[in-house]
């Protein structure tokens, strides 16, 4: 398969190149040059997610050096369960697909593990790739965790000193070689600027084979489309009807992934995107005009995005945007939804997933009843216990994977907010012994 840029002026001949580059050379985002149409009678909904993933993703890897390794990459990336649960026993048609049973408790584990698995096969243990990631939250932990123990790729995670929560810091600093956490004397924007400056330095980039794992990388979106397609296929085979999806999104990673899965023939009915108070997508869906805005801070902070990067990808698939609606859910509605669903059913949403629960609740009764629905539950509520515990009036226990993080030793190095300090850290960071 070949890939084209949404910018219209760049092409790539293979997925390996797309993964290593991240963004296309014309500044656009990569999309496949045609939408694969897998044979849905062959794609077993009853088999494991890893087996399904190998088949679903095969067309994207056809003809690429990674094609042979795809089944192994999928087996490692999709080793955590992705259960479909019934949050309210009184409403069996409503399911949540829980995407938070991976090692860092949010769906970003799947994309990070898949992409790092690809990088580990594209790198070389004698001269490894270096993933440079600036992070304010979930992504850095997922990338660090995914890189642990790899030989041909290492991960360097930059985070702003004193600006992440104690649990987040633990999740960024607890991974062994070849992962190194760098605490930068600055804020998150400084971390991003440092990463950009490092990539702009051709010598530094070549010396360390720098690459990125940010959310526009197709290697993170493909696994997201995969587990949504698998959840849809399982639901279709159980209920005999295409489920609707309600998907919390900010940067349009999941939103685009759902549209991609549907456009590849996955049995998905209407797609409803739920956002927090950041209005960009809501305004676009109401007016047809896209205008980015500055982001505003909300309780669903992993979705605090005013200029969704993946919008360009959505806009490039105009024929796939039917039955797509957007619902905006502000902080007051997030809180009310967490409280009331806990009171009715005992189920606990994280603030991001609560936007989906609320967007579903706002559907007319007949639309709710006419088909099965799947809500994407994107993070474990434990990760947001400061918000959630006061709303439900009880403490939340960490799931085993998150509890295990407390038993790990942590390590970090503090660096000044300048490129020479970063270059020095890159030069001295260790690489796992092959
Ligand atoms: C990253 C993240 C999101 C938003 O993902 P999109 O790419 O904007 O779809 C939602 N919930 C959680 C918990 C996240 O970490």
Could you characterize the architecture of this molecule?
There is one protein chain. With 434 residues, the chain is α/β, with parallel strands linked by helices. It has a domain of 208 residues: Rossmann fold, CATH 3.40.50. Helices cover 42% and strands 14% of the residues. α2 crosses α3, α4 crosses α9 and α13 crosses α16. It is globular and about 60 Å long. 48% of the residues are buried. The model has no long low-confidence stretch (mean pLDDT 94). Pyridoxal-5'-phosphate binds next to α10.
Named at the architecture level, the CATH assignment of one domain is 3-Layer(aba) Sandwich
Q: Biggest sheet, in brief? A: 6 strands, mixed
Q: Uncertain regions: pLDDT < 50 for 5+ in a row?
A: none
Highest-level CATH class of one domain:
Alpha Beta
- Count of DSSP strands: 14
> What molecules are bound to this protein?
pyridoxal-5'-phosphate
**Count of helical segments?**
18
Distance between the termini: 32 Å
The proportion of residues in beta strands is: 5-15%
Kindly provide the radius of gyration, computed on alpha-carbon positions and rounded to a whole number of angstroms: 21 Å
Shape: globular
Give me the secondary-structure category: alpha/beta
Task: Please bin the fraction of helical residues.
Answer: 40-55%
Q: Major sheet: order of its strands?
A: 4-5-13-10-11-12
The CATH topology of one domain corresponds to Rossmann fold
On the 0 to 100 scale, the average pLDDT is 94
């Amino acid at each position: 398969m070949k890939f084209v840029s949404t910018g219209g002026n760049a092409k790539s001949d293979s997925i390996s190149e797309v993964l290593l580059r991240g963004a296309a050379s014309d500044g656009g985002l990569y999309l496949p040059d045609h939408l694969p149409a897998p044979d849905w009678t062959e794609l077993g909904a009853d088999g494991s997610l890893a087996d399904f993933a190998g088949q679903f993703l095969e067309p994207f890897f056809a003809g690429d050096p990674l094609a042979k390794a795809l089944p192994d990459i999928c087996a490692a990336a999709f080793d955590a369960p992705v259960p479909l649960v019934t949050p309210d026993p009184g409403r069996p048609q409503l399911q949540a697909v829980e995407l938070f049973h991976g090692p860092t408790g949010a769906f970003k584990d799947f994309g990070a593990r898949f992409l790092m698995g690809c990088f580990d096969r594209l790198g070389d243990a004698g001269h490894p790739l270096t993933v440079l990631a600036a992070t304010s939250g979930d992504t850095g932990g997922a990338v660090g965790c995914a890189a642990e123990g790899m030989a041909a790729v290492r991960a360097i995670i930059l985070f702003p000193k004193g600006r992440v929560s104690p649990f987040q810091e633990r999740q960024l600093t607890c991974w062994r070689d070849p992962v190194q956490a760098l605490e930068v004397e600055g804020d998150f924007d400084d971390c991003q600027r440092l990463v950009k400056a490092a990539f702009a330095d051709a010598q530094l980039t070549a010396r360390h084979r720098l690459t990125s794992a940010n959310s526009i990388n197709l290697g993170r979106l493909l696994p997201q489309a995969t587990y949504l397609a698998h959840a849809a296929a399982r639901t279709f085979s159980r209920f005999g009807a295409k489920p609707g999806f309600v998907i919390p999104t900010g940067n349009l990673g999941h939103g685009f992934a759902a549209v991609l899965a549907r456009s590849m023939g996955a049995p998905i009915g209407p797609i409803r995107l739920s956002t927090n108070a950041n209005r960009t997508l809501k305004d676009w869906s109401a007016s047809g005009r896209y205008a980015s805005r500055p982001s505003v801070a909300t309780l669903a902070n992993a979705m605090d995005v005013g200029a969704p990067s993946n919008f360009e990808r959505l806009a490039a698939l105009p024929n796939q945007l039917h039955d797509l609606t957007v619902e905006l859910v502000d902080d007051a509605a997030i809180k009310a939804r967490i409280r009331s669903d806990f009171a009715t059913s005992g189920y606990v949403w994280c603030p991001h997933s609560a936007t989906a629960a609320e967007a579903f609740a706002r559907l007319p009764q007949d639309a709710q009843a006419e088909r099965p629905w799947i809500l994407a539950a994107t993070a474990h509520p434990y990760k947001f216990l400061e918000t959630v515990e006061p709303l439900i009036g009880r403490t939340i226990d960490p799931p085993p994977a998150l509890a295990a993080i407390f038993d790990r030793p942590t390590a970090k190095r503090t660096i000044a907010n300048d490129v020479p300090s970063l270059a020095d850290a890159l030069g001295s960071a260790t690489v796992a012994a092959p």
